[in-house]
Design a protein that fits this description.
By secondary structure, this protein is mostly helical. It contains 5 helices and no strands. It is globular and about 45 Å long.
């Protein structure tokens, strides 16, 4: 079932909120982040694709090989641009992203 359309402002707020809550990000929003969210909305990028890209990128960063050097904090929504484009091309079941969300949630609740 398709959800009703949301306003551009609500889309931007949802993207920024999802970004802010993504593990590994600084949790702060800057003007370039708002502009990118607005461009994604104007392009018609589905909110679900953006949210899935954030989850995929966070999972890739967190569930890396043991002993890998630490990664720096993500300070810009632009970091996710390539992954957003990748997700738009993917033909993956929504269940896969739900699985990643569940793993991330469990990881962030128990810590390392």
């Amino acid at each position: 079932m398709e959800e009703p359309p949301i306003s551009p402002e609500e889309y931007i707020q949802k993207v920024l909120s999802a970004y802010r809550q993504t593990p590994g990000t600084a949790g702060t929003i800057r003007q370039p982040d708002r502009l990118l969210a607005a461009r994604l909305q104007a392009r018609g990028v589905p909110l679900e694709a953006v949210e899935n890209a954030l989850v995929l990128a966070a999972a890739r960063r967190i569930f890396r090989a043991p002993g890998s050097p630490p990664l720096g904090t993500i300070r810009s929504l632009a970091y996710f641009s390539a992954v957003i484009e990748e997700v738009l091309e993917l033909r993956v079941s929504p269940a896969y992203f739900q699985h990643l969300r569940h793993r991330l949630q469990r990881f962030t609740q128990i810590g390392r």
